[in-house]
């Protein structure tokens, strides 16, 4: 006995194909099966389906009793959908409740879906192994030649005199007009400016907490930490203030290894040293909000960049490439902290011209 | 079977339909097309359903999104909240955040719609990715379907941007951190980065008062329009080229076997749509997602632990965590750190995905047209590369949750990040290697990993040779094995079917006495 070759279904193979249909694939194969050899060749899209295929078949066609019973099952499922609809209206009318709405919507849609599926599977024709022709993806050689001819008819005329109108006029004019048309896009944002080089900190700005209360040097205990802002700039929803948040930390005794650029920025007050670093991560700009007291490290919750305060906020782990810039601190005679100047290096994530002049 | 009354009713319906179609045909000449459309055949395989899942989630997104847009206010004006959610009472916040809170607590059915919208977005992206995997591993992107692959990849890209823009609209602490990171990534692009970021945001972060209007118009107009257009093109090309199918009994490169569009496929597909609605709204009602009232309004001075984006952005967030502290500086300029994981990596990834059909043609020296699919095992190299890529993305996605996983497993995030850094190289290599060999093994044994256990009846024929019976596999045809190295240039179906007939490989189901 010849084995059926997939890909070579001859008309006579129909039965073989039905017999050999695997067990877990329980489709009843209907009508004459298998296309004639080469039936599809050159057949133009759309489908050309052999008329002898019996595609009015569906599983319960010959069993009116079961078909009727299935109709009732489907009807009851859809009745549940209707009931859920009424329930939803009542729920909505009485003020709404998320879980009830969810339950009713899910049941309504679910029953609708189940009913439709049973309907399609058992009571509607057109299913199973109906065979059609794919036709050809490509056009005939004549059509292919004709399209080139049509195109050439146009392009030959358009490109007359070596494309005078196109090359010498249309392209330059289109370019100029195109650029002009894009011009309004420039209104979208301001120019570079020096936004990224400066923050809202200024010489003499008092440090305040998030509620705008001035901070005294004695407000932060040893190992304590606090988020501070320049006075009058606590509203970080404003772009001018968004880069200013800083953290004030009391590291206790003299244990900081200062970077050269930051020499003298820490404030000695009593027996303690107060330091203030930018809170904006030098990696991707998140607020460096986590503080590990034991290791004296600041950790950014976004990507786990870790800055060692005792090493002058140098990054010791994670993707941050640079230390957090430090704010030079001063203290007024009555004990209030102020900034001696703005940060001396750009705050936050890097950019192309960061090393250049502001 | 049918009664006289039924038959006469059917005749009446046919007459009415005829009249209606004739009226239409007088004007549009539409009958030929409509007939072929209704008779159109779609192959049946569960894996062909996944693309539909994406399509229907998109429909749900449109419908729920319209409802949400009726209440959301894209404004960064500062307001003080006074509403039913007491923990936020008296706090100042942007109107964008306030309107989302009100939408959740004060608008009837608002929360279920918002959560359903978010769940549908996650399912939309998941379905796109799974659909893409199906197309990749079965070689459905091969000639003549490369155009649809390109459209599909573009759909994935736009869908990711669409998802992220929607996730960012509420202006809560979580999404605000996400925007901050994206701003930094754009800012890191050489030459034009700062200008691009300032242009998009209307100034330095967190942007001008127009920013949320811009994000909103992108999210509810520009991208959905783009997705709808691309989806239309995707379906149009699919319709014209006809669906691919697995090889099997009676299936050739030239025929198509399956169900008719009308009524079978249409009703089944409608059922799928309703089923997805049930799942999405069930999740929307019962499973909390993105509780922005817990996160609080965004502030540049705050960030919270457990900052995870939606899952489809996870691989990029993970890449940002795994990329070391490198950046390049010289002559007063620098290419900042986020550029490499945030721009370069996705750039390379999408470039590879876009050009994959061309790479694949080269790799297998296969320039033929294909309507029948590959089984993944029959192209071990492609399958191995695909699985390796999936492991790479899985590694990066895990990395986006280092803090949560570290807490859960009680190990330090430093160790975890280091493991995942090595993992991003090692895992794909191991996975690819293993996959390659599993493919070869599956080819030899003809076992189906899902459908049924390995086994069969061994029969001795008259010549004394042993044969195995009982291997009948779904889309594997009659169980003809294959070593997939055979050239795929056969006219009718994959060449392996013919080859093994001769080779008599194990799994050959031919009856004895052949």
Figure out the total of helices of chain A: 6
Q: What's the helix-strand series of chain B?
A: HHEHEEHHHHHHEHHHEEHHHHEEH
Assembly category: heterodimer
Provide the low-confidence segments of chain A as ranges: 1-47
Q: What value does the Rg of chain B take, in angstroms? A: 28 Å
Biggest interface, chains and residues, is: A-B, 121 and 135 residues
Q: What letter string, H or E per element, gives the SSE order of chain A?
A: HHHEHHEEHEEEEEEEEE
Radius of gyration of chain A from the CA trace? 39 Å
> Mean of the pLDDT scores of chain B?
89
Task: Quote the distance from N terminus to C terminus of chain B.
Answer: 46 Å
Helicity level of chain A, as a percent range? 25-40%
Q: Could you give me the name of the CATH homologous superfamily of the largest domain in chain A?
A: Rieske [2Fe-2S] iron-sulphur domain
CATH class membership of the largest domain in chain A? Mainly Beta
How many helices of chain B? The count is: 17
Percent range for helical residues of chain B? 55-70%
Biggest sheet: strand arrangement of chain B: 1-4
What would you note in describing this structure?
Chain A is of the alpha+beta class. Chain A folds into three domains: 11-37 and 44-123, no CATH class; 141-188, no CATH class; 207-339, Rieske Iron-sulfur Protein (3-layer Sandwich). In chain A, 30% of the residues lie in helices and 13% in strands. Chain A contains six helices and twelve strands. Chain A has helices at residues 14-20, 64-93, 98-123, 141-158, 160-182, 239-242, and strands at 130-133, 207-208, 225-230, 246-252, 267-269, 272-278, 290-292, 297-299, 306-308, 314-317, 329-331, 337-339. In chain A, the strands form three sheets. Chain A has a five-stranded antiparallel β-sheet, with no helix packed on it. Chain A has a four-stranded antiparallel β-sheet with strand order 7-8-9-10, with no helix packed on it. Chain A has a two-stranded antiparallel ribbon with strand order 11-12. Chain A is flat and about 100 Å long. The N and C termini of chain A lie far apart (86 Å). Chain B has 514 residues and is mostly helical. Chain B folds into four domains: 4-39, no CATH class; 51-238 and 270-358, Cytochrome Bc1 Complex, Chain C, CATH 1.20.810; 379-445; 453-514, no CATH class. Chain B has a two-stranded antiparallel sheet with strand order 1-4. Chain B has a two-stranded antiparallel sheet with strand order 2-3. A two-stranded antiparallel sheet of chain B has the order 5-6. In chain B, helix 4 (95-105) crosses helix 5, helix 12 (314-322) packs across helix 13 (339-364) and helix 14 (380-399) packs antiparallel against helix 16 (413-445). Residues 472-514 of chain B have low confidence and may be disordered. The longest helix of chain B is centred in the last third of the chain and has 33 residues, at 413-445. Chain B has 17 helices and eight strands. The interface between A and B is large, with 121 and 135 residues. Strand 1 (130-133) of chain A pairs antiparallel with strand 4 of chain B, so a sheet runs across the interface.
């Amino acid at each position: 006995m010849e084995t059926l070759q997939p890909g070579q279904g001859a008309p006579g193979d129909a039965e073989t194909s039905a017999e050999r249909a695997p067990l877990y694939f329980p489709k009843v194969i209907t009508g004459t099966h298998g296309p004639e050899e080469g039936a599809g060749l050159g057949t133009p899209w759309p489908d050309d389906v052999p008329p002898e295929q019996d595609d009015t078949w569906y599983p319960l066609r010959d069993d009116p009793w079961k078909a009727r019973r299935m109709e009732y099952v489907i009807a009851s499922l859809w009745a549940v959908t209707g009931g859920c609809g009424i329930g939803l209206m009542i729920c909505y009318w009485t003020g709404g409740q998320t879980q009830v709405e969810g339950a009713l919507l899910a049941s309504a849609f679910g029953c609708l879906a189940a009913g439709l599926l049973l309907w399609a599977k058992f009571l509607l024709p057109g299913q199973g192994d109906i065979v059609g022709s794919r036709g050809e993806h490509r056009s005939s050689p004549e059509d292919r030649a004709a399209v080139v001819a049509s195109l050439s008819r146009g392009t030959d005329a358009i490109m007359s005199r070596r494309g005078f109108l196109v090359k010498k006029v249309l392209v330059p004019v289109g370019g100029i007009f195109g650029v002009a048309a894009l011009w309004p896009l420039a209104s979208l944002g301001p120019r570079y400016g020096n936004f990224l080089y400066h923050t809202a900190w200024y010489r003499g700005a008092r440090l305040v907490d998030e509620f705008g209360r001035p901070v005294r040097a004695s407000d932060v205990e040893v190992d304590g930490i606090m988020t501070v802002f320049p006075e009058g700039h606590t509203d970080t929803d404003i772009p001018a203030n968004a880069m200013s948040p800083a953290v004030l930390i009391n590291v206790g005794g003299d244990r900081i290894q200062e970077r050269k650029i930051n020499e003298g920025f820490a404030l000695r007050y009593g027996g303690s040293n107060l330091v203030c670093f930018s809170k904006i991560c030098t990696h991707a700009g998140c607020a460096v909000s986590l503080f590990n007291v034991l290791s004296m490290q600041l950790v950014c919750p976004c990507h786990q960049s870790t800055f060692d305060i005792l090493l002058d906020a140098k990054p010791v782990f994670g993707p941050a490439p640079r230390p957090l810039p430090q704010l030079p601190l001063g203290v007024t005679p009555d004990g209030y902290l102020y900034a001696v100047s703005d940060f001396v290096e750009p705050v936050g994530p890097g950019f192309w011209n960061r090393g250049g002049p502001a | 079977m049918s009664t006289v009354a039924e038959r006469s009713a059917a005749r009446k319906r046919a007459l009415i339909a005829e009249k209606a179609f004739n009226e239409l045909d007088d004007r549009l000449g539409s009958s030929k097309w409509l007939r072929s459309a209704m008779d159109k055949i779609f192959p049946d395989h569960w894996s062909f359903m996944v693309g539909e899942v994406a399509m229907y989630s998109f429909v749900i997104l449109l419908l729920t999104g319209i409802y949400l847009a009726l209440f959301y206010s894209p404004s960064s004006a500062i307001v003080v909240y006074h509403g039913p959610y007491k923990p936020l009472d008296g706090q100042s916040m942007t109107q964008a955040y306030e309107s989302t809170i009100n939408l959740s607590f004060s608008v009837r059915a608002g929360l279920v719609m918002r959560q359903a919208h978010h769940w549908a977005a996650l399912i939309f992206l998941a379905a796109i990715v799974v659909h893409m995997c199906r197309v990749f591993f079965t070689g459905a992107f091969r000639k003549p379907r490369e155009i649809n692959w390109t459209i599909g990849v573009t759909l994935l890209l736009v869908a990711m941007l669409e998802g992220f823009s929607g996730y960012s609209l509420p202006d809560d602490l979580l999404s605000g951190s996400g925007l901050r990171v994206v701003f930094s990534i754009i800012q890191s692009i050489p030459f034009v980065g700062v200008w691009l970021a300032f242009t998009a945001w209307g100034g330095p972060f967190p942007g001008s008062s127009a920013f949320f209007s811009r994000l909103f118009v992108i999210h509810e107009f520009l991208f959905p329009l783009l997705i709808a257009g691309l989806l239309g093109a995707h379906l149009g090309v699919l319709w014209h080229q006809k669906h691919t199918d697995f090889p099997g009994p009676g299936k050739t490169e030239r025929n198509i076997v399956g169900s008719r569009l009308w009524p079978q496929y249409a009703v089944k597909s409608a059922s799928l749509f309703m089923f997805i609605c049930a799942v999405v709204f069930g999740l929307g009602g019962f499973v909390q997602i993105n509780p922005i009232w817990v996160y609080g309004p965004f502030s540049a001075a705050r960030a919270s632990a457990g900052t995870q984006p939606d899952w489809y952005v996870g691989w990029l967030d993970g890449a940002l965590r795994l990329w070391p502290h490198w950046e390049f500086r010289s002559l007063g300029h620098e290419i900042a750190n986020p550029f490499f994981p945030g721009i370069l990596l996705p750039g390379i990834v999408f470039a590879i995905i876009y050009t994959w059909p061309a790479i694949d043609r080269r790799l297998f020296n296969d320039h033929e047209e294909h309507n029948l699919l590959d089984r993944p095992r029959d192209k071990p190299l492609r399958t191995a590369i695909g699985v390796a890529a999936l492991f790479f993305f899985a590694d990066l996605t895990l990395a986006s949750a280092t803090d949560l996983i570290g807490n859960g497993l009680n190990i330090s995030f430093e160790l975890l990040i280091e493991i995942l850094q090595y993992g991003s190289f090692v895992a794909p290599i191991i996975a690819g290697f293993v996959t390659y060999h599993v493919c070869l093994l599956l080819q030899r044994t003809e076992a189906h990993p899902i459908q049924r256990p390995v086994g069969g009846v061994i029969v001795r024929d008259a010549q004394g040779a042993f044969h195995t019976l009982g291997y009948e596999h779904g889309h594997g045809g009659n169980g003809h094995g294959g070593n997939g190295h055979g050239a795929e240039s056969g006219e009718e179906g994959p060449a392996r079917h013919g080859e093994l007939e001769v080779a008599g490989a194990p799994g050959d189901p031919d009856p004895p006495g052949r």
